[in-house]
Design brief:
Length: 150
């Protein structure tokens, strides 16, 4: 599974909206400038997120977008499914967009793809936009050669 720029930009926009913490609507242009995203492309993404009920949009003066739910209730998996469709490495293990394979009967790879899908869903469906708003600190790198001499 490759995550498209559509999902990447959609997630970035939601992170930005969640970080605003205000009732004011945020214009697409502001989000686009923050993440260096083409505004027309971002507007298409935001329209899809609006149609899915993830964000609301308001046109005109003071218009823009805001989250429809708290960031703690919007998962990365929901966003990626909305923007890209299935979350599965291969169509033969997708529950929403199943694609049969000529080798499916007795194929040992199907087990691998199913386990991979389950692992991906475990991460994506347990990660909220609120989680993504918290910067990850880099773990301290320990030089094992130096540490073993002490």
């Amino acid at each position: 599974m490759n995550v498209s720029t559509k999902s990447e930009y959609g997630l970035r926009a939601l992170i930005y909206l969640a970080g605003k913490n205000s009732q004011d609507a945020t214009p697409a242009r502001e989000i686009a400038e923050k993440w260096s995203v083409p505004v027309k492309y971002l507007e298409q993404i935001l329209k899809t997120l609006k149609e899915a009920g993830i964000i609301s949009g308001q046109v005109g003066v003071g218009g823009g977008y805001r989250l429809m739910r708290p960031a703690t209730l919007i998962t990365a998996g929901e966003v990626i499914r909305t923007l890209d469709g299935r979350i599965a490495p291969m169509g033969c293990v997708s529950t929403s967009d199943y694609e049969p394979c000529e080798f499916e009967d007795g194929c040992g790879l199907k087990t691998l793809w199913a386990r991979t899908r389950a692992a991906m869903l475990g991460v994506l469906d347990q990660t909220t936009i609120a989680d993504l708003c918290t910067p990850v600190s880099r773990p301290k790198v320990i030089d094992l050669k130096t540490a073993s001499r002490k």
